[in-house]
Specification:
9 helices; 5 strands; 12% strand
Length: 221
């Protein structure tokens, strides 16, 4: 409406007022419990983009699979001809140059797919009856340099010792193997400096839920 116009602006009902969604990068270090946090946000109504899941799906696409086999050999194949992620993991986590090489192969196509999904979600109108929050679940948010794609960053934190214990138990690893995997990511204390919200996942589940709900309420504002 132009200044001085006598027209009155029509007010839309609250449930029809649209706004842009908030894109939230959910990250943390390996075995910090990020997946549990993601699922809690999902229960609250967030739309989820799971970068790890995208990576798993892309791993056996013909072009990507051929690049991986060329660099890491055919011994990483299962009997059905698909790549065995555990075998590949043992190779790359033991050598930082190899994990860097794998990331060079995997990160670009993962980022393309993430951007596609973000674009789709951003086209959807967000009303008071829909979730205003998109969670980009990305363990390597900083390492892959995609933190610029998000508006806010939520970091799931546990101490290194807790990480080691959980990772050893979960993946049946020796302490040395667990340390190798943790060392392939940024130190979690470094990530804290860039986070808008930090979730302490060293306590009980009720504490975790309370923290998530508090952050959720702030994100919806």
């Amino acid at each position: 409406m132009k200044p001085g116009s006598s027209e009155t602006k029509t007010q839309l009902p609250n449930h029809l007022v649209t706004r842009s969604p908030v894109i939230v990068g959910l990250t943390g270090s390996i075995a910090s419990g990020k997946s549990v946090v993601m699922n809690e946000f999902k229960k609250l109504g967030a739309k989820i983009i799971d970068a790890d899941k995208i990576g798993h799906l892309l791993l056996n696409q013909e072009g990507i699979k051929n690049k991986i086999l060329k660099n890491f050999g055919k011994d990483i194949l299962k009997n059905d001809g698909t790549i065995d992620r555990k075998k590949l993991g043992k190779i790359v986590f033991a050598d930082k140059k190899k994990i860097s090489l794998l990331n060079q192969i995997m990160h670009p196509p993962i980022i393309v797919e993430v951007k596609k999904k973000l674009h789709i979600f951003n086209q959807l109108p967000v009303t008071s009856h829909q979730s205003p929050v998109i969670i980009l679940d990305a363990p390597l948010l900083f390492e892959a340099k995609i933190n610029h794609l998000v508006d806010k960053i939520v970091l799931v934190y546990v101490s290194r010792e807790v990480q080691l214990q959980r990772l050893q138990e979960r993946n049946k690893l020796t302490r040395k193997e667990a340390e190798q995997r943790i060392s392939c990511q940024w130190d979690i204390k470094k990530k804290i400096k860039f986070a808008d919200f930090v979730i302490d996942n060293s306590k009980n589940f009720l504490s975790l839920q309370r923290q998530i709900k508090q952050i959720w309420n702030k994100l919806k504002e």
